[in-house]
Design goal:
single chain, 2 domains, 3-stranded antiparallel beta sheet, mainly alpha, 213 residues
Length: 213
């Protein structure tokens, strides 16, 4: 669990529609969960830890860290805003009580939760989150050489970047059951719709070294 925040509470409040009276502790916990779970899963433990270390050392503006600064400012922070918002919705709008879920309305007052409206809200935030995660994923795929930590993990407790089909990564598993070359030999053009510049890309996901140069 980290105590370093990659977006501030002020940024969260500015770019979401949460009420300004919401308890700061709820927001900070949502940011922490967004970082430790969603961001770490997306970029991997080693790159995540590298960015945390740079921020802790107050060295983000050093020329040697320019690639990490771009990644944080232009891609990670946008995704974190909506990841934190998604995690915060339960804590902000719902409370667990003996009689089930309730929605606080101020003071000691509360109403029963309209689950339909709540689910619509969560889905709206999730859609925005997925857009920014797609954007983040595409960036680190294209700029993999700038982030050696992406593929350096060799320990079970260190997460590797999760480029699932949900985020449309063009990484290719070398051990794929059917590789792209077989399809191309038979006259089929095989690529991920997100990465048409890589026509040899197969259906699986793995290291960039499998892609044509």
């Amino acid at each position: 669990m980290t105590n370093t925040f990659l977006i501030s509470e002020t940024v969260f409040r500015t770019y979401t529609d949460v009420n300004q009276n919401i308890d700061s502790a709820l927001i900070k916990n949502a940011i922490r969960e967004a970082q430790d779970i969603t961001l770490q899963q997306t970029i991997g433990t080693l790159l995540y830890d590298k960015i945390i270390d740079i921020v802790d050392a107050n060295e983000m503006d050093l020329p040697a860290n320019s690639a990490y600064k771009t990644l944080l400012n232009d891609y990670i922070q946008d995704a974190l805003i909506y990841a934190a918002y998604w995690y915060s919705l339960d804590a902000i709008y719902l409370r667990s009580r003996n009689n089930g879920l309730i929605q606080p309305t101020g003071g000691e007052n509360s109403d029963g939760v309209d689950r339909t409206l709540y689910n619509v809200k969560r889905e709206s935030v999730k859609n925005k989150l997925e857009y920014y995660l797609n954007r983040l994923t595409a960036y680190i795929i294209e700029e993999e050489s700038s982030y050696p930590e992406l593929n350096a993990s060799n320990k079970l407790y260190e997460q590797n970047p999760d480029y699932s089909t949900k985020y449309g990564s063009p990484f290719v598993f070398a051990q794929g059951v059917r590789n792209a070359a077989e399809f191309n030999d038979r006259g089929y053009r095989v690529y991920n719709s997100m990465a048409k510049q890589y026509p040899q890309t197969g259906f699986g996901y793995g290291r960039r070294s499998s892609l044509p140069k």
